[in-house]
Specification:
With 550 residues, the chain is α/β, with parallel strands linked by helices. The protein contains 14 helices and 28 strands. The strands form 7 sheets. Strands 1, 2, 3, 4, 7, 8, 9, 17, 18, 19, 20 and 28 form a 12-stranded mixed beta sheet that branches. A 5-stranded mixed beta sheet has the order 23-24-25-26-27. The protein has a 3-stranded antiparallel beta sheet with strand order 10-16-15. One of its GO terms (biological process) is methylation.
Length: 550
């Protein structure tokens, strides 16, 4: 079968192609759980991760350097924090839309690392081939997650997990080098006090035979000739050998009488090592180490499958540098965010379960305060920075008692303006001087959302306030018929009608059967009285309104 045909092969399952039409929600900061530097860009998001990824898409597409996710493994085992046994086809259907948005978020030189075990790893590999392109597959890393065998195993004792690695574009992406270890550097000595520093002897022979590499090397100390063994040859030419001897780069042993060796100086070797695909627990930790780390922040409820900080340290070291954005949309106990914080990366962590507050929040708070667990001592972590805690806004539209969609009463004017900007692809950025400039899509293209009945007089006033070349989209609940098409540079749309059938409103859970949070009782049916433009402006500056992130 040709490579061309292989590229067309796709995984098929029940439910494929029935991806949800996601509502692009806005994010609202919860100051009670934000901590540290108020100017931080680090984000901890509590909410359904598919909706949260959709909320991030507009502002973060193409900006995330490294994504690490540890999705539920679909093993059929019941975990305390996750019901990790979703039917196989459903598991694939849940993964596909998440991976598709994650791909959009990756920068061109970015990569994604996915932890998985044998139950779904091979299906996930084919699914990732579909989403990221088979040509962008990097490697399958094997992580030794535990040391002792499971004596109750029916077949073989499972001692490893997989980490699938894909690049956005393999031709562009290159991993960083791992730092050299003290043990590696200690192999370099300087017995002859060479001014170029420590060195170690290396072989002067090469396996590929060439007649030009067969000649005698003369020891300048004794005049003795050294020929390469029969069937082999020197890796350097005779002229190069002479220059290296003159430059004191050839070593003839402690007594100066043995065969030639080349001096490999520590200062000239690659200052790092290429990572292998087999990661042992001694290098990057195991499950037991990870559980001990989690217990530092929550003794009463420990995750079943946390990841050790040293494992994430290895991944982030290879796939990012200081200041890069790291994302984990299955944050779990908060390991990725904690490690990214200590390593000077910006991060976005998403978690649906209540452990966003019980595990992630106290852990990241302790990191800001300078806790000394995990990799802290290795990276000389002293504390600092901060993070902001966000929740997803409720669905923009809800049905009233007559089964008609209306604007959710939970939305204040600021939230509505931000939500409509996101729905229409605008950047929510209210102008301090012009109340109607609530968002922009370009330097001269603006959006204005109001619940006030739009009259011709109000429209004319807006038009008179616009500069030549500017255009405006007005989203309102109702308007005079005479307003429609009155000005070529002003477009008017009616809400909620403009939004119907655009996406799936009213759904808050696209989860992997993760334990749902208790829901507050719904509010009484809200009054649909229009809000005036002046009221909108008054409320925009109210100190009681929640902080929005759009």
């Amino acid at each position: 079968m040709s490579n061309k045909n292989l590229q067309k092969l796709e995984l098929t399952w029940i439910g494929k192609g029935e991806e949800p039409k996601l509502e692009p929600r806005i994010l609202i900061e919860n100051p009670e759980y934000s901590y540290g530097d108020s100017h931080t860009e680090n984000m901890l998001i509590h909410g359904d991760n598919l909706l949260a990824l959709k909320a991030l898409e507009q502002d973060y597409a193409g900006k995330v350097k490294c994504i690490y996710i540890d999705p539920p493994y679909n093993t059929g085992n019941a975990f305390e924090h996750y019901d990790d046994g979703v039917e196989h086809s459903l598991w694939l259907s849940l993964m596909k839309p998440r991976l598709e948005i994650l791909k959009k978020l990756l920068s061109e030189d970015g990569s994604i690392w996915i932890s998985i075990d044998d139950d779904e790893s091979h299906y996930l590999k084919v699914l990732c081939d579909m989403v990221f392109g088979r040509q962008n597959f990097i490697n399958n890393v094997i992580w030794e997650k535990k040391y002792s065998p499971s004596n109750d195993a029916k077949w073989l004792s499972d001692s490893h997990d997989h980490i699938l690695v894909y690049a956005k574009y393999k031709d562009i992406w290159r991993p960083n080098l791992l730092p050299r270890t003290d043990d590696m550097n200690n192999r370099y000595k300087n017995p002859d006090n060479d001014q170029r520093g420590p060195w170690k002897p290396g072989d002067v022979l090469v396996k590929t035979f060439s007649e030009s590499g067969v000649f005698p090397v003369v020891n300048p100390n004794t005049g003795e000739e050294f020929w390469p063994p029969k069937g082999s040859c020197y890796r350097f030419s005779q002229d190069v050998f002479k220059k290296m001897i003159a430059d004191n780069r050839i070593y003839f042993g402690k007594t100066g009488t043995t065969g030639p060796q080349v001096k490999r100086f520590l200062s000239e070797v690659k200052q790092g090592i290429v990572a292998k695909t087999l990661w042992f627990r001694a290098e990057v930790g195991d499950n037991q180490e990870a559980k001990a780390e989690v217990k530092r922040f929550n003794l009463t409820s420990v995750f079943d499958t946390p990841k050790p900080e040293r494992l994430l340290d290895r991944i982030l070291m290879l796939a990012s540098t200081e200041g890069d954005i790291v994302l984990d949309s299955f944050l779990g106990s908060g390991t990725t965010a904690a490690v990214a914080h200590k390593m000077g990366r910006k991060y976005i962590g998403i978690e649906l379960g209540d452990h966003a507050r019980t595990h992630c929040y106290p852990r990241l708070k302790a990191v800001v305060d300078g806790e000394q667990g995990g990799i802290s001592k290795a990276v000389n972590w002293q504390g600092g920075g901060g993070f902001k805690f966000y929740t997803l806004a409720p669905s923009l539209l809800k049905k009233d008692r007559f089964d008609n969609f209306i604007i959710s009463p939970d939305y204040n004017p600021d939230m509505l303006a931000a939500a409509m900007a996101k729905q229409e692809g605008f950047k929510y950025q209210p102008d301090e001087a012009k109340f109607w400039k609530q968002g922009t899509s370009s330097e001269q293209d603006f959006i204005f959302t109001t619940t006030q009945f739009l009259t011709v007089e109000a429209l004319e006033a807006l038009h008179d306030d616009m500069q030549p070349g500017e255009s405006l989209l007005i989203c309102c609940k109702a308007f005079q018929q005479e307003c429609k098409n009155k000005f070529a540079n002003i477009t008017i749309k009616k809400i909620p009608q403009m939004l119907l059938n655009r996406c799936e409103f009213g759904k808050d859970d696209y989860s992997f059967n993760i334990v749902n949070l208790p829901q507050e009782e719904e509010n009484e049916e809200a009054d649909e009285t229009s809000i005036s433009v002046q009221e909108l402006n008054d409320q925009k500056n109210s100190p009681d309104q929640p902080t929005l992130f759009d």
